[in-house]
Amino acid sequence: MTGERLKALVTGGSGGIGAVICRRLGAAGHFVYVHANRRASEAQAVAHALIAAGGAAQAVTFDVTDPAATRAALEAIVEHQAVQILVNNAGIHDDAPFAGMSALQWQRVIDVSIKGFYNVTQPLILPMIRTRWGRVINISSVTSLIGNRGQVNYAAAKGALNAATKALSLEVASRGVTVNAVAPGIIAAGMGEPVLDAAEIADLVPMKRAGSAEDVAHLVGFLASPEAGYITGQIISVNGGMA
């Protein structure tokens, strides 16, 4: 697939880390579908910026937690060409101490990350397999690996995503499709992780600074490339050395 323009879909591509991932994939020459749910204008702006830079892109809007709406949108996308790079970046925070966490706070965070993963990935995986080449890259979190107070729901959602990453990678490894997860730490971009001051970051991060969205996007770009063809089933941290 070297040098070939592939179709890439980035869920939650309308802002923060997602927009930078879209730019990275666009710079690699891929046609990028910039997904949003409620941020349609922001997704359009990202797509227009990619086109202005000489790339190819289109904004798409659907709710990843709605199976029917997601499938309808994806069927239109893959009608003539499979999506061969999928970045499952959509995710939300709804933080609270577990003792005071409502059922709605629990469910909506789980739904976006886990129902969203299924609703988006399942319709795309067979067309990807048929091409004998594909990349599924799930955006996880350091919280899934070391935990964080007030984020039991988010840790559970991203931890499940890590497990799904490993299991799916085994199913498709012989078909030329890799499945990996990227687990950002404290990133100074968009939703990212909870906002901390410089002293708190220095205390938590051995590198004594927050990471950037570009740090995450560079790894995603590599995992989406032909050079990463022998890397699959991995949860790779981008966190400045956090244990």
Question: How would you describe this structure to a colleague?
Answer:
It contains eight helices and seven strands. It has helices at 16-27, 40-52, 67-77, 103-131, 143-146, 152-172, 198-204, 213-223, and strands at residues 7-10, 31-36, 56-61, 83-88, 134-139, 177-184, 235-238. The model has no long low-confidence stretch (mean pLDDT 94). Helix 4 (103-131) packs parallel to helix 6. The chain has 243 residues and is α/β, with parallel strands linked by helices.
Please state the average pLDDT score.
Answer: 94
- Order of adjacent strands in the largest pleated sheet: 3-2-1-4-5-6-7
Main sheet: strands, sense, barrel: 7 strands, parallel
The secondary-structure class comes to alpha/beta
The residue ranges in which pLDDT falls below 50 over 5 or more consecutive positions are none
Element-level helix/strand string:
EHEHEHEHEHHEHHE
Radius of gyration: 17 Å
Q: Give the termini separation.
A: 36 Å
Q: Bin the strand percentage.
A: 15-25%
Q: What overall form do the CA principal axes indicate? A: globular
Number of helices, counting only DSSP H or I runs of 4 residues or more:
8
Helical fraction equals 40-55%
Counting DSSP E segments of at least 2 residues, the number of strands comes to: 7
